[in-house]
Write a structure and sequence with these properties.
alpha/beta; 13% strand; Short-chain dehydrogenase reductase 3b-like; NAD(P)-bd_dom_sf; SDR_fam
Length: 272
């Protein structure tokens, strides 16, 4: 049997009913973690838990915009499992695409409330549980390539993800004293229900676009790739990594695609 990298650990995953969150719930459970999957998509969340097994995964309703619900979800996790070793704060929304000249500030506020305030609430209450129990935990937040460059998503989404990277760094600076690591993952376009709905694309269109824009060819970005990055940051294999934003984008955010590069035909090369 392959090594289970999270054996004996308890993980709380927000946004765990679909997309990246669901894939991470499944992967963490495969690697021995006991998982509480939190979301507002109750039917889907219960289906995910049932498909994996109630001995491994429990679903719990939580709207991260409501701090009381976040606090209650952490309490539920502690009452069920006695500890929290891993927080994957993954819940987020894209928000509507609009011109900055016509931006709906109510929608902007909702995006910030979910993507920034909601994450702050999950960090606050999960970290309090870790500190009180002297657990050297791992906190992971889902950001985006929109956290480093503009023009890849709605304005509110881009602003929220930039803010989230700052929050991760700030939380890292304080929680390191308790042995708690705080990191983030910045994916490029993954064909999740969130991205498909936000851009009015079918999954194949999202994947085709990501493949066309990424520098790294021959790989199609899947939710599983992001889940594997979260697994690394949750496991002891990253025990001295904190304050890091792990970008999973095939080189998209660091390569100037205007550079006049003509690919070489591999058939023209002779091995040295």
């Amino acid at each position: 049997m392959p090594k289970q990298r999270l054996e004996g650990k308890v993980a709380l995953i927000t946004g765990g009913a679909s997309g990246i969150g669901e894939e991470t719930v499944r992967l963490f459970a495969e690697h021995g973690a006991l998982v509480v999957a939190a979301d507002i998509q109750d039917e889907q969340g219960h289906q995910v838990a049932a498909s994996i097994g109630s001995d491994k995964v429990t679903y719990h309703h939580c709207d991260v915009r409501d701090e009381n619900q976040v606090k209650e979800t952490v309490k539920f996790t502690l009452e069920k499992h006695g500890r929290i070793d891993i927080l994957f704060s993954n819940a987020g929304i894209l928000g509507p695409l609009s011109c900055i000249l016509d931006i709906d500030l109510n929608e902007f506020d909702n995006t910030m409330a979910t993507n920034v305030r909601g994450v702050a609430a999950t960090i606050k209450h999960s970290a309090r549980a870790m500190v009180a129990r002297r657990i050297p935990g791992s906190i992971i937040c889902t950001t985006s390539v929109a956290a480093t460059i503009g023009g890849t998503g709605p304005h509110g989404y881009t602003a929220s993800k930039h803010a989230l990277v700052g929050l991760v760094k700030s939380a890292c600076s304080e929680l390191g004293a308790y042995g708690i690591r705080v990191n983030s993952i910045s994916p490029f376009g993954v064909a999740t229900p969130l991205s498909c709905k936000g851009f009015n694309f079918v999954p194949q269109q999202v994947e085709d676009f990501s493949c066309s824009q990424a520098n790294l060819k021959g790989v199609v970005l899947k939710a599983r790739h992001i889940a594997e990055a979260a697994l690394f940051l949750a496991s002891d294999e990253s025990s001295y990594i904190s304050g890091h934003n792990l970008v999973v984008d095939g080189g998209f955010s660091v390569v100037n695609r205007s550079y006049p590069f003509t690919p070489v035909d591999p058939n023209s090369l002779v091995a040295d």
